[in-house]
Amino acid sequence: MNFFFFKQKTAYEMLRSLVGSEMCIRDRLKPSALKEYIAGRGIEVAERLQSYCSDDDSVYLEDMSGRVALQPNCELLPASGLVTGLVCALKGTISNGEFVPTAVCWPSVDPTRLLPNVQEDMYVALVSGLSIGSKESNTLCTQMMVEYLTGRVGGDEDIQLAASVCRVIVAGNSLASLSDAAVAPKAAGLQAHSVTDIAIAANSLDSFMLDLCSSVQVDIMAGGMDPSDFTMPQQPLSRCLFPKSSELKSLSAVTNPYHCEIGGRTFLGTSGQSVDHLQRFTAMEEHSPTDLLASCLKWRTCLPTAPESTACYPFKDQDPFLIDEMPSVMFAGNQPEFGERMVDDTRVISVPDFSKTGSIVLLNLKNLECECITFEA
């Protein structure tokens, strides 16, 4: 019986006295600019597939000294449910030059801290994908959502619920993408017209944030479509996008991923890149967004695909995406539909894209129960 404990540049604590190696997945369908260049086809934009998984994918464990292949079609560690960069320790045997695992140990994480006793209902609203300025954006639905959260519409129960909302987290993609037809140049060479459209969309977003911030504290994250960094972690959106609402202390532009504490509950979330990129490199039909978030908790990282397939800043001494303590709530924004489940003591939430679904999520800090509210115009 063999025990494989590989060391790497950044050691992860597995259990006492155990460290693990980095896992490497050889994705046959993954595009490679180097391979295209060597083949003489130049560097061209490859067709983006919905999934880069294939039956020919293989799994390796590697460190600075070398690598060892895992037995193909391993039920304990199927290639369709793994991505490059994961860290684990394995127990097993060697057969025909391949490692046959019989047990796996994932990194340990500090348990979720004890929740304080909240006597009254307090809500956190999770919103994502406003996409203001795009063809899919519905200004009337967005205005209805803002008025609902500020207690201007609805019956007595709705107004009482709105008064219990203590924080609104906008999980990215608040502005339309530059490639969207609604903000793209109307004809060749008319880039100035596109800039005008973007400025109008930014002013609209600023007005919505001003209305929200007049009643509740708002944390707005950057997203993949927003004018922010391409690499992760994305830095806060510039104050120049919010000339009016940024004057209020109740508006906070925050990073992506975002970690905070509200009412004694810890929150950890992204604008959706973690789930989106995992879906491309795992079997999409077998993994829902909440399943992938649960896997992130098991793997002890909120962005497991960085830097292999998700661009990120180089960090020498620490990994900013490591999960040191299990959060009370973990969420991913800009998802096709709402989803939620409990993973041990953590509530994982798939926040729907508002521009496509008109839906937001309300989380009760008292019991971590959540509900999805949809606005239709």
Percent helix: 10-25%
Number of strands: 17
User: Which of globular, elongated, flat, extended, rod-shaped describes the shape?
Assistant: globular
Low-confidence segments, ≥5 residues, pLDDT <50?
1-20, 181-193
Order of helices and strands: EEHEEEEEHHEHEEEEHHEEEHEE
Characterize this entry briefly:
By secondary structure, the protein is of the alpha/beta class.
Task: Tell me what the structure shows.
- With 377 residues, this protein is α/β, with parallel strands linked by helices.
- The chain is 19% helix and 26% strand.
- The strands form three sheets. Strands 1, 2, 3, 4, 5 and 6 form a six-stranded antiparallel beta sheet that branches. The protein has a six-stranded mixed beta sheet with strand order 10-9-8-7-16-17. Strands 11-12-13-15-14 form a five-stranded mixed beta sheet.
- A hairpin with a 2-residue loop joins strand 5 and strand 6.
